[in-house]
Amino acid sequence: MASTSAAPEIDKDLMARLARTIRGLAIDGVEAADSGHPGMPLGCADLATVLWYHHLNANPADPGWKNRDRFVLSAGHGSMLLYALLHVAGYGLSLEDLKNFRQLESRTPGHPENFVTRGVETTTGPLGQGFANGVGMALSAHMMHARFPDLIDHFVYGIVSDGDLMEGVAAEAASFAGHHGLGRLIYLYDDNDITIEGETDLTFSGEDAGKRFEAYGWQVLRAHGHNVDAVNAALAEARGDLDRPTLIVCKTTIGFGSPNRSGTSGVHGSPLGAEETKLTKKALGLDPEKSFDVPAEDYAEWKRAAERVAELQKAWEAKLAAADEKTRAAFLAHYEQKLPDLKALRPASGGKAVATRKSAGAAENAYAAALPWLAGGSADLAPSTNTLIKGSDSVGAGSFGGRNIHWGVREHGMGGICNGVALHGAFRPFGATFLVFSDYMRPAIRLAALMGLPVVYVFTHDSIFLGEDGPTHQPVEHYAALRSIPGLSVIRPGDDEESFVAWEAALKRTDGPTALLLTRQNLPYLDRANAGLAAADGLERGGYVLRDCESDPKAILIATGSELHLALEAAKRIEGARVVSMPCVETFRAQPKEYRDAVLPPSCRKRVVIESGIRQGWHDIATDDGAFVTQETFGASAPAERLAERFGFTVENVVKTAQELLG
Amino acid sequence: MASTSAAPEIDKDLMARLARTIRGLAIDGVEAADSGHPGMPLGCADLATVLWYHHLNANPADPGWKNRDRFVLSAGHGSMLLYALLHVAGYGLSLEDLKNFRQLESRTPGHPENFVTRGVETTTGPLGQGFANGVGMALSAHMMHARFPDLIDHFVYGIVSDGDLMEGVAAEAASFAGHHGLGRLIYLYDDNDITIEGETDLTFSGEDAGKRFEAYGWQVLRAHGHNVDAVNAALAEARGDLDRPTLIVCKTTIGFGSPNRSGTSGVHGSPLGAEETKLTKKALGLDPEKSFDVPAEDYAEWKRAAERVAELQKAWEAKLAAADEKTRAAFLAHYEQKLPDLKALRPASGGKAVATRKSAGAAENAYAAALPWLAGGSADLAPSTNTLIKGSDSVGAGSFGGRNIHWGVREHGMGGICNGVALHGAFRPFGATFLVFSDYMRPAIRLAALMGLPVVYVFTHDSIFLGEDGPTHQPVEHYAALRSIPGLSVIRPGDDEESFVAWEAALKRTDGPTALLLTRQNLPYLDRANAGLAAADGLERGGYVLRDCESDPKAILIATGSELHLALEAAKRIEGARVVSMPCVETFRAQPKEYRDAVLPPSCRKRVVIESGIRQGWHDIATDDGAFVTQETFGASAPAERLAERFGFTVENVVKTAQELLG
Questions:
Q1: Residues 140 through 199 of chain B touching chain A, CB cutoff 8 Å
Q2: Quick one: which of A148, A503, A115, A137 has its CA closest to A333?
Q3: What is the pLDDT of residue B1?
Q4: Which residues sit opposite B456 in a β-bridge?
Q5: Distance (Å, whole) CA B497 – CA B491
Q6: Helix (H, G, I), strand (E, B) or coil at A257
Q7: Cα separation of A596 and A551, whole Å?
Q8: Could you report the per-residue pLDDT of B210-260, keeping only the tens digit for each?
Q9: Radius of gyration of chain A measured on its C-alpha atoms
Q10: Which residues, including other chains, have CB under 8 Å from residue A482's CB and lie 6 or more apart?
Q11: For the purposes of burial, counting CB atoms within 10 Å of the CB of A63, is it exposed (0-12), middle (13-18) or buried (19 or more)?
C-alpha cells in the first residue's frame, strides 16, 4: 500500500541555521550541568531538525492531540537534543529549564521523562526500550486506523542508536514490527560507529544492521545524516510504504562540530569543557561568547512550522465533529476508557475446583466483551495462559481489526510494546507469559511502574506446583522480586472469585501496572457463603479476614494464592486461628492503620505466612514472633503433589508450624 | 580459514533404525510421565542421530574430557530426545531412568539439568539461554585454541528452535558470535513452522531467519531435517569455515510419524495418548505393543560410535602427555583454577576517598595478573565499570589470545555467554554493567545460580547516588531483587578495603555466582587502623562489627556500601551505638547462631538499617523494634548531594532516626 506523501521542499540554509542553534543549546545544557551527553545531539541535530520542522505533525500548543505523530528518542541519553527541540518548537520549556538540566525538580532530567516534561512521549534511557515503545505506539495507531480510518492515520518517528539496535528487546520488537507490517513506524538510525568502549568495530560492525532489518521485513533506506535533502527525501519515501516499518540508516559524526572530539567515544558521555566548547561553537559558526542563545528568527521559523500543524489539527477536529455520533463516541471511548459496573459483569463461580488461570481467563473475557479498548495476548503461550479473547480476531499483518495480539516468544519485546500501546492511549494492553519468564521482561515492567502506565501482566504457572517442567520453569523468588518494584501491584488470587476481583482491580487501576499471579493447577472451590467465609471483594484492600475464629485470634494464618486453601484447612484444626487472605500485600500496607490492625491485631503476633515463594518481604507481616511455610530453594521436576509433600506445603505442616508457635 | 573435515560416509538405513528407536523412547517417556513434549524429539530424531553418531566427538565413558565436542539442547523441552540419546550412547542413563521421566529425584527431570544428569552440558528450558550458553562454550574454545592449539580444537553443536531464535538473548548472542567469528559453533535450527499458539506464521514467518543470521556474519546452510545425507554433508561443511559460526536451517515436521498430530501445535507440549502412540509407532515401524524397547543391535552400533571417539581421546591424552611440562601445567591450570594467597596480592588502600568501582577495578587487576584464567569485560561500559584488565588484549575476530571481552550493549547475551564460558570450564568469566541493567540479564543470572556456576557480575553505579542520569538509571529495588535469587551472593562493599575482600570472596566461591555492587561516587577513606575499626576481612562472614561502643550496645547501626560511612559518622553522635557493616546479608544469615548473636545481640533490638534501596528483606535483621533509612521510591535526576538531602541519606537523619528509636 502506497501513501501519497511527497517530500516537502526544504531550505537547506534554514535547516542549517536551526540545527546550529540546537547544537548550541545542547552544548550549553551539558556544560551548565557539567554532566550529560553532548555527542548524540551534535550528531543528530541536522536530521532531527528536518524531521521536526517539516515532517512531524505534532502541535506544541496541544501535545495531547490524538492524531499527532509520535516522536521517540530511544537514545534517551541525547535528552538535550529533545529539550532543545521542545524549547524552540514552542512546548513551553523555557531557557531557564534548559539551564537547569539535570537538576533536582527541573523539567529537564538527565533522561527524558514523560511524566515530567510536556511533549515528551515516553521515558527513555535504558537502551532498546524506546525502540519497543515506538513499536507499541505504531501498533496502536494501526489498530485505531483499522477502526477509525478517517481519524487516526498518524506516524511514529524515532531516533535509535547503535546501542538500541544491539539490545535484544529491540531485536524482538523489530521482528514483531516487521512481521506485523507496522508501516506507520519510521526510525532514523544514528549510525555513528561509536559506542562507549570505542568504535563499534570492537563488538558490532561485523553485523550489517540494514540487512538484518530487511530480514525482519522492514523497508531499509539510507541517507547521510548531515545531508538534509537526503533525510527529507527518505522520510517521505518511508511514508510511501504503509505495509512495512522503515529504518533509515543515517551515517552521522558523533559530536559533529567539535574540532578535537567529534568522531570519538570521548564525546559520547562527557561535557566538552570550556575550551572545547568555544572551539566547537566557533567551528559551527556560533558566537563562542554567548550561551543559551536563540536568534529571534529561529522562534519565528518554528512558529511557522507549528502553524502548519495547527491547521492540520483544526481540520482533524472538524472531521471529528462531523463524524456521526456513534463513531465519535466509540472513538472517544478508546481514550476515556470508562469502566462500567464490573461487578455486574463478573462471571459466576463454577462451584468446583478450578485453576486461577482459568477463572482469570473467564473474567478477562467477561470484561473484554464490554471494553472494546482492552487488547493483548500472550508470548506464545495463549493455550496455557488462557488469555485469548473469544470472538475476537488475531492482530496480524494487514489486519488490525482484532484484539488478540500474538507477541511471539518475545517477552521483553511484549513488555516494551505494551508500554508503547499504553502510552498511545487508545488501548489498555495486557501481556501474558509464565511467571518465571517475568524475568525476561523486567526492565519493561520497571519502566511501566516508573511511568505509571496501567499495563496488565497475566503471569500464570505461578509456583513450583506447575510440577514436571522443573526448576527452570518454577518461580520461587519472583513474588518478592516483583513486589520490590515501586509502584507495581502484584496480586495473587486464591480462588476463582478472587481471580475475578483481581482482574477488576487491575482494570480499575489507572496510575500504574498490575501483575496477576495465577496457578496452573486447580484450586479447591471455596464455598464462601456456606462456609462462613468473607466475600472476595476484600481483595480490593489487599488483605482481609477470610475466616475468623469465635473469640480473639490466638494465631493468624496468612496466605496467598494456591496456599490459601491450606490455611483454611489448617485453621479448622487449630483453636483460635484466623485466616487472612493477602493477595496484594502492597495494597494492604497502604491501608489505614486501623484497618490493618483490625485484620492483623497487634496483640496477636503468632502468625504464620504461607506462600510457595521465598519469605523475603513477609517478616514485618509475620512479626518477630511469627513463622513461615515458604519456599527458600529452587524447586524440582515432579508431579505437584509430590512437590507439596517434599517442600512442606501440606495442611499437616501448616498445622505443625502453627502449633509450634503456640507452644 | 578452512578445516579439512570431510563428511563421513553414512548408512542411511542404520540412521533410520537408530532414529526410530530414539523416537520410540521419547514417546514412551512422555507417555509414562503423562507430561512432556513429544513433538520436538520426533521432529529432530533424524538430525540428532546423524550428529551424535557420526560427528559429535564426545566420549560417553568420560563426559569430562576437556577437548570433547559440546552438545547443547537449547530447545530444552525436547529433553526426552537428549535422554534417549544419552541412554543409547552409553552415558549410564538406564531404561529405568527413562521410565522415571519427570519424577521426583529422577535423573530425567522435565528439562535437562546439567547438575543432575551425566552428559548434560547445560541446563536449558528458558528459551534462548542454551543458544547463548553454546556461544560461551565456543568463545572459550576459541580462546583456549589460541593458547593451546594442539590441545583444544573441538566444536560446539546445538539444536535450536523457532522459540530460541525469537528471544532477544539469542539475538544478542548470535550477533556477538558473528562479530567475533566463532567458527567452532554449529547450530542445527529445527525449523518446524510451529509454535505453541499455532503456526509461526502468526507471529514469525515474515522474518527470514537465514538472512538475519547472514547479517550477523554467520555461515547459513540448509538441509532438510529428515534427509540424513543432507544433514551429514552440512555438518561437515559447517566445520569447513572456522571463521564463522554456522546455522544449518533444517526444515522438520514436528511430531514426525504421528498420523494425526504431526505438523500441528497440539503435538508440541502434550503426550500423544495411548491411541495415537500406537498409531505413531505403527507408522514408524515400531512394535505398538512394546515400550522402552531398544534392539540389541542399536547398543552395538552406538558402542562402535563411542569407540571411535574413545580412540580420539586416547590420541589426545598422548598429545597432552607429550607436551612440555610448562605447557601442560599452564593448560591444566585453566581447569583447576587454583587460587594463590589472594591476600598477599591485595592492593594497598590509597588512603583517600575513592569509588568502590575504582578500588574493585584495582583488585580485579591485581588478582587477574596472577590468574590467567580470569577473563571478562563490560557491556559497553568498560570506562565506567573499571573492568578492563590492563596489559591484556581485547578478544576480537580472529584474535582470541586476550582476556578483555567486549560484550557490546548486550547485557542478557553477556549473562548467557558467561554461563557458557563457566560451563566450558577453562575460564572464570565476569560480566559488568550498571546495576540497574542487571534486570536485562536476570534470567541468565538465575540459571547461573541454579547451575551453581561461579560467574562474577560487576555491577557499578549501584544507587541513586549515580545522580544526574536519573531514575531510569538508578537502582532502588535491585538489591532486594538480586538477593531474592536463591544461591546468588550479593556483596556491596563499603570502602576500598571491603572492595578488595569482596573480589576475593567472589573468586573463592566455586559453587555459585557472585554479584559485586559498586559505587559510581567516591566514598570516604576509612582509616581502620587509626580509627579503631575492624579489618575488612570481616566481610567474609557477610557482616561484622566495624566499630563497637564501650559497653553493651544500646543501638546498632547496620549499613552496606555507600551508606556505611553515614553509620560511622552517626555513631559518633549516639551514645552506645555499634556499627555493623553488612556487605553480604545472605552470607551473614548462613553463619552459626553464635556468631550472628555476637554481631547482633538479641538483647539489643534498637537497630537502624541504612541502605539506599528498598527495605524489603531487612526486617528480620532490624527486628520489630528497628527502623530504616532506606529508599522506597524511584530516585530523581540531580547531583548526588542533593539527592542525599532529599531522600534522607544524611548523618543528621540517621542520628535522628536512631534517637527516635531510643526515645
A1: 162-164, 166-172, 175-176, 178-181, 195-197
A2: A148
A3: 43
A4: B430, B514
A5: 13
A6: coil
A7: 18
A8: 999 999 999 999 999 999 999 999 999 999 999 999 999 999 999 999 999
A9: 27
A10: A438, A445, A488, A490, A515, A517
A11: middle
- Render pLDDT for B30-40 as a digit per residue (tens, 0 to 9): 999 999 999 99
The 3-class secondary structure across A510-565, one letter per residue, is CCCCEEEECCCCEECCCCHHHHCCCCHHHHHHCCEEEECCCCCCCEEEEECHHHHH
B436 touches chain A (CB under 8 A): yes
- The H or E element that residue B419 is part of is helix B411-424
Distance, CA of B129 to CA of B413 (rounded, Å): 8
Which 3 state secondary structure label does DSSP give B225?
coil
Report in angstroms the alpha-carbon separations of A483 from A449, A493, B473, B627: 11, 15, 19, 20
B637 contacts in chain A (CB < 8 Å)? 102-104, 106, 109-111, 113
Angstrom CA distances, B572 to A285, A548, B566, B644, stand at 57, 49, 10, 20
For A465, A522, B73, B89, B524, the CA distances from B30, given in Å and listed in that order, are 19, 22, 17, 20, 61
CATH for A540-662 is 3.40.50.920
Contacts of A172 in chain B (CB under 8 A): 166-168, 171
Contact, B504 vs B350, CB < 8 A?
no
Taking CA atoms, B303 is separated from B22, B86, B198, B296, in Å, by 15, 12, 40, 11
> How many residues belong to chain B?
663
Residues 359-418 of B with CB under 8 A from A: 378, 380-384, 394, 396-397, 406-410, 412-413
Q: Quote ipTM for the complex.
A: 0.97
User: What values do phi and psi take at B497, rounded to 5?
Assistant: -70, -35
CA-atom Rg of chain B in angstroms: 27
Rounded Cα–Cα distance for residues B449 and B485 (Å):
7
For residue A607, the cross-strand partners are A556
pLDDT at B207: 62
Dihedrals phi, psi of A58, to nearest 5 degrees: -125, 140
What is the architecture of the domain spanning A12-313?
Answer: 3-Layer(aba) Sandwich (3.40)
Amino acid identity at B585: V
Strand, coil or helix: B354: strand
Pick the CATH number of B342-517 from 3.40.50.970, 3.40.50.150, 3.30.360.10, 3.30.870.10: 3.40.50.970
pLDDT mean values, one per 10 residues, chain A (663 residues):
71 98 98 96 98 98 98 97 98 98 97 98 98 98 98 98 96 96 97 80 74 96 97 98 97 95 90 96 97 98 98 98 98 98 96 98 98 97 94 89 96 98 98 98 98 98 98 98 98 98 98 98 96 97 96 96 98 97 98 98 98 98 98 98 98 98 94
Asked if residues B207 and A216 have their Cβ atoms less than 8 Å apart, the reply is yes
Residue A595 CA, distance from chain mean position:
32
* B397:A202 CB<8 A: no
Q: How far is CA A203 from CA A128, A199, A366, A423, B405, in A?
A: 17, 8, 50, 33, 9
Q: What is the distance in angstroms between the Cα of A511 and the nearest Cα belonging to chain B?
A: 15
CA distance A476 to A245: 39
Q: What are phi and psi of B195, to 5 degrees?
A: -125, -175
Catalytic residues of B: 411
Domain spans in chain B, listed from the N-terminal domain onward: 12-313, 342-517, 540-662
pLDDT score for B589 = 97
In the beta sheet, which residues pair with residue A395? A405
pLDDT at B2 over 50: no
Single-letter residue type at B488: L
Nearest-CA distance from B130 to chain A in Å? 12
Q: How far apart are CA B625 and CA B604, in angstroms?
A: 9
